[in-house]
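Task 17 of the worksheet. Students: predict the tertiary structure of the chain below and write it out as structure tokens. Keep your answer in the requested format; marks are given for formatting as well as content.
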Amino acid sequence: MLQPLNGLDFRHYSFNKGNRRFLFTNRTAVFRTACLTILCISGTSLAFAQESASSAQDLKKLTIEQLMNIEVTSVSRGPEKLSDAASAIQVVTGTDIRRSATTLLPEALRLAPNLQVAQSNSQDWSISSRGFSGAPLSNSTLANKLLVMIDGRSVYSPLFGGVFWDVQNVLLEDIDRIEVISGPGGTMWGANAVNGVINIVSKEAKETQGLYLSETAGTFLTDKISARYGSKIGKSTYYRVYGQHLDRRPTFKSDGSRNTDNWSTTLAGFRVDHEAGQKNKFTLQGDFYGGVQDSSVDKVNGQNVLGRWTHTFSETSNFIAQAYFDRAYRNLAGAGFRDQFTIYDLDLQQGFALGNRQNVLAGAGYRHMYDNTIGSASLSFVPEDRNLELFNVFIQDRIELLRNKLDLTVGTKALHNDYTGWEWQPSARIAWTPSINHTLWAAVSRAVRTPSRFDAEERFLSISNVNHPIGSEKVAAYELGYRTRIPRIGELSISTFYNNYDQLRSLDTTGTPSPLFRFGNGNSASSYGVEIAWNLYMLDWWRVRGGFTYLDEDFRDPAPPTYNKSYLLEAVDPKAQALLQSIADLPKNFQLDVVGRYVADLPALVTSKEVPAYADVDVRIAWIYKRFTFSIAGRNLAHDKHLEFGSARLPRSVNETITYRF
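Model answer:
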């Protein structure tokens, strides 16, 4: 039976219930006062969390059957079992995050074995899938081929086409799951979904009832304080409000002295879910944040509000409308540059059955972006202010060729942008399930990355693209994968791919004194690789998950005026990496969690030295006592002051966390 929902209608599933942690601290007077106020006004109406010391064994709540039957929405914008998805998709559950030394969202993404994640300084990360990590910059990287969404809101920056990870400060406790697709997703999600899609799905408000308090302190993350309160109004409206503040110390230079990349941010937000009968569901949520970086030199702030309405016509038909507003401000005082962008986005989607064996999904979207910049002699955009518009329409048809055995999914998205006009992104996927324990799938896709303002209108030192057109980057991707369920043990998946890239961004000479360089589309490349992932129950109290990836990139020699090595601005990627996460429930309510990882070496750039291959380990030890959880965690324990991406050296660190729930 078709369940007519899509990737914008995010739900919580029962296998994650009871994994919430509640933290308490008296380190900060503001949070202490807020928490006491909540306690006073709530009285005895606070809902007790479902987890207690006698039922705190996380592994027993996520059975093998539930693990394989996790429903994902990112592949086809509709719910389907993870075991049946015709895509290289991996899921990081809320339990996986809580049972690690993770303290921030980018660190949680390390737990996805099909992502390349490397920290470039105290507040910035390079995050990519299947390569193209970009080059390290002082305040970001050039990675721009990965689409990232938080509850249906794209966290894309129209300034450079990537993600500013320093302001994605979500409450990890509220994450239900993170779906990570490696490979193109442009047919469903549009531009930038070239090499992958990250879909961060939060719990519904009804799953976060009661009071949650947290305190974390340590040697690198010096302070992280969180608070959340959830309750309901009437019988069908649930809400939560939350806040979080964190401080991180700076990283180190090669001579052992400290950089000036310390980081402090504060977040506040809310979510309201309302069910009006059996056919209508409404969600309203928003975040407000501000932060100071680089020894109080650089400042950021922003707000976003999202609303979503789902109307169910029947078991095989529904309609979803979503709209959001997103504003982000960034003042890079050291570079004399300021940027403020405002996004208004509307997305409409209709799902319906066509006969007995076809499920059709169609939709349209519009996005208006206004970007205002104030530049300097070293960095500016022409024009300073810019209005950009995106239009898109898509259709997808899932056809059951052989009942419960063979499915074919075909579709395309047409997208119009202000720089290159209309772009087409078709795809075809087929999944063969000969038995409940085996799925073989294949896919052919075309995806594009449309230009950003950085590509088309930026002036940076001796580089300028003003009055010089630039086209979209294109990829044709071919994928083949296999996913199997191992009875009474777990799951294993293997994905292979071959990508052919054309019109990649390049650094070209102009032949004139000023500017000396400009961006072009002179690079082309091919890549191939394999991704292996597993999730295994070794014993009833011990689970092991992880994966291995191999990537080979071949950039073809470009013709003049493109520089031969300009591809290093786009692809600074390890050939191999491995991840292993061990989650163990010990006697007396103790927990022992270990994450080990290996990353191959990175090539040298003009702006940074070669990064040698390294292996590292994180360890977390926790004890649960009634409504308290006490934990101590160590990160980067194998190496002190080591490189991952760029030139900043990351310290070994230790932190403690106290949790309390009521």
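Marker's comment: Residues 288 and 303 are 4 Å apart (CA to CA). The helical segments are 29-42, 64-68, 94-98, 105-109, 186-189, 453-456.
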